[in-house]
Design goal:
2 copies of one chain form a homodimer. By secondary structure, chain A is mainly α. Chain A has 10 helices and 5 strands, in the order ααβααββααααβααβ. Chain A folds into 2 domains: 79 residues, Arc Repressor Mutant, subunit A, CATH 1.10.10; 145 residues, Up-down Bundle (Four Helix Bundle (Hemerythrin (Met), subunit A)), CATH 1.20.120.530. The longest helix of chain A has 22 residues. Chain A binds a DNA duplex (30 and 30 nucleotides) through α4.
Chain lengths: 231, 231
DNA sequence: CGAATGTCTGTTGTCAACAGTTGGCGATGG
DNA sequence: CCATCGCCAACTGTTGACAACAGACATTCG
């Protein structure tokens, strides 16, 4: 009974419509790279494998296309879209703009709990690094950056950031001296956390901007082959 | 050849699919405020009035919903969405971030022709102002800001800006000493144009940021009623 | 008289079928 | 042997119909 209440409470009506479930399912698969870029998404096989009709499939594909995760060429079907090296760099520039805005807006809103939460994330990153849990590290990294967007209380910003991360989140650096970069990244997070505790928005913004520019500069010189897919 | 390439690039086969035409049609009507916020968009009447089935209507509404121009509550239909005063202010913050990024990226790319084009826009704004053509003024204003986004050559930025303008473009200030603000706006455009001709990205960015913040500050004090719909 | 409940209508969500188009594959001619 | 033309298969775009749900209204019971 308790368990039933939990599931009910966590998901009041967990995705009412069919196409929403299809959309969520496909979106997760794309972001997990279970469906790597270039995969063709034909409606009939999808409908068959998911046990629904083509209607909800079309609706879900339409939403994913509007989000930019798949591209559909009329009469030619949908394929999971990929970012070129150049587009990825451009997305990084937008990310810098959005995140610096986010932290500028967020710092004045930060509660003491929020600041503690930031520190906790960085602490857990150190732990994850200690046991070579790279995947866990990246999850925490996302949480760190997402937190400021959430606290900014700017819904437009939140929507756009979600969309942007949907494009970029699939790619992760593998080579380029990952270990060293990662340690430096944690140190920068720590510095940003300190600026947040001091409620110094300007300093936090400056630190975050430089923090984001590090991989941006590294990538600038690297070829596309060095930016590989997760897993 | 150049002309043919232009028209071909602008409209290769003027909207192949039905739902695209429906989407474009509805989008224009919403942006023109022919369909003001709050209008309910029922599928059957729309399908009847446009002479198509419900399928393309649904697809178009889905895209508009993904873009945020309409909100659909499952089983309750679609409604043209409105921005609250607060959301509008938040959108302005995002716009500031995106446009400052745009001009920073654009200035190094500016050709001499581009600079001439900027001056031409400002010149025409002066003319429009001289004959009290407020609507024309606002169109030119949009062109001015759009130009930097175009020249930035950042497709992610362009997509997001298009989406943002879709949300904000429907609203226009009417009261709040419009005339005086407009004259000041042109002067600021002129200053930005000068910075562009000098290829001074930093100065252009600073001027643009302040330029965007003017209506932002004015709106901050104003109530929502003073931000009325175009026409 | 007020509140709860049952019905009823209008709408959306979903499905299966039809038609048009695209791209590939093979046949034919040079 | 290569290029061109025409057919075929598969897929998408579109349609109309069916079923389920949300809200409104009227009815009934406390």
């Amino acid at each position: 009974m308790a368990a039933r209440r939990d599931t009910a409470a966590l998901a009041p009506v967990e995705n009412v419509t069919l196409w929403e479930r299809v959309y969520t399912h496909l979106r997760e698969q794309i972001l997990d790279n279970t469906l790597p870029p270039g995969t063709v998404l034909s409606e009939v096989p999808l409908a068959a494998s998911l046990g629904v009709s083509r209607g909800p499939i079309r609706e879900a594909l339409g939403r994913l296309a509007a989000e930019g995760l798949v591209t559909v060429r009329p009469r030619r079907g949908a394929v999971v879209s990929a970012l070129t090296h150049e587009e990825f760099m451009q997305a990084y520039q937008v990310r810098e703009a959005l995140e610096t805005l986010a932290i500028r807006l967020a710092v004045p809103n930060l509660t003491d709990d929020d600041v503690d939460r930031i520190d906790a994330i960085v602490d857990r990153q150190v732990l994850a690094l200690g046991r070579d849990d790279i995947d866990g590290f990246f999850v925490l990294n996302s949480s760190f950056h997402q937190l400021f967007v959430d606290v900014s209380r700017n819904t437009t910003l939140q929507d756009m950031y979600r969309q942007l991360i949907g494009h970029m989140g699939r790619y992760q650096m593998r080579s380029v001296a990952l270990r060293g970069t990662v340690r430096r990244s944690v140190a920068e997070h720590r510095a940003i956390a300190r600026a947040c505790r001091a409620r110094d928005a300007g300093r936090a913004e400056r630190l975050l901007r430089n923090h984001i520019r590090v991989p941006q500069r590294t990538l600038e010189a690297a070829s596309h082959e060095e930016v590989v897919l997760k897993r």
